[in-house]
Amino acid sequence: MLKTMNQKISIFLILFSSGYLYLTYNLKEYPYVPVDSDLVPKLLGFLLIGLAILLFFDKSSETEEEKEKRKVPGKELLVLLAVGVMILAYIFLLEILGFLLATALFVFFCSWFLGYKKWKSNLLVSLIFPSVLYYLFNYLLQIRLPQGILPF
User: Fold this and answer.
1) How far is the C-alpha of 152 from the C-alpha of 140, rounded, in Å?
2) Which residues have CB under 8 Å from 36's CB, separation 6+?
3) How many Å apart are CA 28 and CA 26, to the nearest integer?
4) How many whole angstroms separate alpha carbon 90 and alpha carbon 95?
5) CA distance 106 to 37
6) DSSP letters along 60-124, please?
7) What is the pLDDT of residues 3-52, one digit of tens each?
8) Predicted confidence band at 84 (pLDDT cuts at 50, 70, 90)?
9) What confidence tens digit (pLDDT) does each residue in 126-142 have?
10) In whole angstroms, how far apart are CA 34 and each of 16, 23, 41, 134?
11) Against a cut of 0.85, is the pTM above it?
């Protein structure tokens, strides 16, 4: 039944996004906010299912050259694993430290690890980017992000 790699990936993505959507429907609802915290995750889950269905019916076939490109060298695999660990640490620290601190630390250390060595620019971006996002979500969209140990 599943002949191509696209179909196999599509089935995995549909199952993954179904589980993801199940979890988003179990998110806590907040009273007195115009846009609840589950809106964006639900939209992303349904978008992923839609794109996975399109991928399932994609007729393009994979050439030998594309199969070779899919092989990941060992050194790059270690980099992917390290970034994955950083993402897991970010998820774990998000509620504890809050969105601003956790995101700033994640952006700074992940960029530094991936080779961006201009620490002044890296520091500015890692402070400004989460601050702008926090302001947009909390004050303009009225979607509460975890504040963590910060008083605001």
Assistant:
1) 15
2) 29, 30, 143
3) 6
4) 9
5) 22
6) ----HHHHHHTPPPHHHHHHHHHHHHHHHHHHHHHHHH-HHHHHHHHHHHHHHHTT---HHHHHH
7) 788 889 999 999 999 999 999 988 877 777 777 777 889 999 999 999 99
8) very high
9) 999 998 998 898 888 87
10) 29, 21, 16, 17
11) no
